[in-house]
From TrEMBL:
Keyword Zinc: no
Organism: Alca torda
Cellular component aspect of the GO annotation: cytoplasm
Stored InterPro entries: Ig-like_dom (IPR007110), Ig-like_dom_sf (IPR036179), Ig-like_fold (IPR013783), Ig_I-set (IPR013098), Obscurin/Obscurin-like_Reg (IPR052385)
SUPFAM superfamilies listed in its UniProt record: Immunoglobulin
Top-rank taxon: Eukaryota
Coiled-coil region(s): none
Segments forming domain Ig-like: 3-86
Protein name: OBSCN protein
Keywords: Cytoplasm, Disulfide bond, Phosphoprotein
Gene: Obscn_2
Chief place of localization: cytoplasm
Alphabetized Gene3D superfamilies for the sequence: Immunoglobulins (2.60.40.10)
UniProt xrefs under PANTHER family: OBSCURIN, SI:DKEY-31G6.6
Length: 86
């Protein structure tokens, strides 16, 4: 059983203007196959035309495309028992 990954670089608050992209990055202690999940408020986010979710090694990135006022709120990244919010 693989040891749990921890969050070593937490999310930073991002301010964006309507129509811009908002980029959030979180870095883990190690590469993991463990489920990592992004949330806007309580809503789990999927990769689609509005959101791009990328994983490169230990770096997990969420890009919210052309944000609107409805996208305002807290973004959370969860892996295992660990959570980071911005």
């Amino acid at each position: 059983k693989e040891p749990a990954a921890t969050i070593v670089e937490k999310l930073k608050d991002v301010t964006s203007y309507e129509g811009e992209d908002a980029v959030f990055e979180c870095r883990l202690s190690r590469e993991t196959t463990q489920d990592a999940q992004w949330f806007l408020g309580d809503v789990p986010l999927q990769s689609n035309e509005m959101n791009e979710i990328r994983v490169q090694g230990t770096c997990h990135t969420l890009i919210l495309r052309k944000v609107t006022l409805e996208d305002c709120g807290s973004i959370s990244f969860k892996v295992g028992q660990h959570t980071s919010t911005a």
